[in-house]
Amino acid sequence: MPLLSLDPDEADAIAELFNIGMGQSAAALGDMIGEEVQLSVPSLSVSSRSRIAHEFDADAAARVCAVQGDFSGPFTGQAMLIFPERGTLALVGRVMPVDPAASAPGEVELDALTEIGNIILNGCLASLSNLVESEVSGALPCCCTGQPAEIIGAADEDPILFVRIDVALATGDACGQVLFLLNIASLDGFREAIRKALASL
After folding, report:
1. What is the reported pTM?
2. How far from 114 is each of 23, 66, 111, 130, 144, CA to CA, in Å?
3. Rounded distance, CA 87 to CA 82, Å?
4. Rounded CA gap, 136 and 134, in Å?
5. 199: which residues sit within 8 A by CB, 6+ positions away?
6. Which is higher by pLDDT, 140 or 60?
7. For residue 147, what are the contacts with CB-CB under 8 A and spacing of at least 6?
8. Whole-number Å distance between alpha carbons of 61 and 87
9. CA 160, CA 144: separation in Å to the nearest integer?
10. Measuring CA to CA, how many Å separate 42 from each of 20, 24, 102, 160?
């Protein structure tokens, strides 16, 4: 299903809604860590988990840490916050002491990343709920580590609406991505939610 199934106003509205939602979450995280959190403009495409995983696996040796959680409402899918292992250590180091000799996060650091992910992902979903005037509820996020293909799902070829936002601390030592993978089957519900948001903007 091509992205053109969304008209230009709808596509622009999707980008703006996620921009607003993530902006509020990034501001909350920035207040917590005392540092600006920078965001890219949201990018949209119709893709698949397999294709997305392949793009993230360009560096096959790179292991990542991911906080992920399902969400439901007028549209359904999964949200992920992904950082390389060293970037995770740098990010978590803003809120708790981290062993400078560590090469990968341990259980305590992953717990801290989960809390950060909860602020970003569920904060964004809460903002989206307000913007579309319909409840979008997120499950409690969980954290895992591994290759991007393992985490994203390299075997899944089903089409999804893919929203990506790059996230970085102002110092540049922690750079990651927020991914929203929306089920195409719920696209009609998503389109209706977007129309409501457009009417109120």
Report:
1. 0.87
2. 19, 8, 5, 24, 9
3. 10
4. 6
5. none
6. 140
7. 57, 60, 62, 63, 64
8. 15
9. 22
10. 10, 14, 32, 16
- How far apart, in Å, do the first and last CA atoms of the chain sit? 27
Please name each of the domains of the chain with its CATH number: 3-200 (3.40.1550.10)
Length of the chain: 201
Paired with 102 in beta bridges are: none
What is the token pair recorded at 157? 């070829």
Tell me if 155 sits within 8 A of 72, measured CB to CB. no
How far apart are alpha carbons 175 and 87 in whole angstroms?
6
As a dihedral over the C-alpha atoms of residue 94, residue 98, residue 104, residue 110, rounded to 10 degrees, the angle is -60
In this structure, is the dihedral angle defined by the CA atoms of residues 100, 102, 108 and 110, taken in order, positive or negative?
Answer: positive
DSSP state of 141: P
pLDDT in tens, 75-130: 889 999 999 998 999 999 999 999 888 888 999 999 999 999 999 999 999 888 88
The string of pLDDT tens digits covering residues 6-46 is: 677 777 888 888 999 899 999 999 998 989 999 999 998 88
The per-residue pLDDT for range 165-177, each reduced to its tens digit, is 999 999 888 999 9
